[in-house]
Amino acid sequence: MHLDINDEQSLVNAGIRVTANRLLIWRHVRHSFQGAFSLADLEAALPTLDRSTLFRTLTLLSEAHLLHDIDDGSGSQKYCVCHLDDTRHCMGHVHLTCHVCHRTYCLPNVKIPPVALPEGFLPDETEYVVKGTCAECAKKHK
Questions:
Q1: Model confidence, pTM
Q2: What is the tens place of the pLDDT at every residue in 92-112?
């Protein structure tokens, strides 16, 4: 795993008190997962840490806008590292979920298209998930 002094600083900048477990989890999440992951994925990757520590840390990272939650319809909450804008807000982007392998991918450079909302409606969050078959699964099933 690639270690980066910025891992610790990013926790500090987000107002998170740095502990050994939090830093280990953040480093793993930031450098080892390509796209979205679940609590089960993190448990498998870091078997020495208990589930409650992992869950509390994921919640903390999400509340600090270092991770964002993805409800891809699988019944398993997924997480992805945030790509922050200048105001430290996680930029809304499109996610892809594969029906075959059940992986969810973040497309950080594909922004959620604007939606015309009824007058007076104040949105809190927006999720945009496209479901289908990923390229890797499509090749296997030709």
A1: 0.78
A2: 778 888 889 888 888 878 888
String of DSSP letters for the chain: ----HHHHHHHHHTTPPP-HHHHHHHHHHHHH-SS-EEHHHHHHH-TTS-HHHHHHHHHHHHHTTSEEEE--SSSS-EEEE--B-TTSPBPPEEEEEETTT--EEEEEEEEPPP----TT---S----EEEE--HHHHHHT-
Beta-bridge mates of residue 94: 107
pLDDT tens sequence across 52-84: 999 999 999 999 989 988 888 888 889 988 866
Whether the Cβ atoms of residue 6 and residue 57 lie closer than 8 Å to each other: no
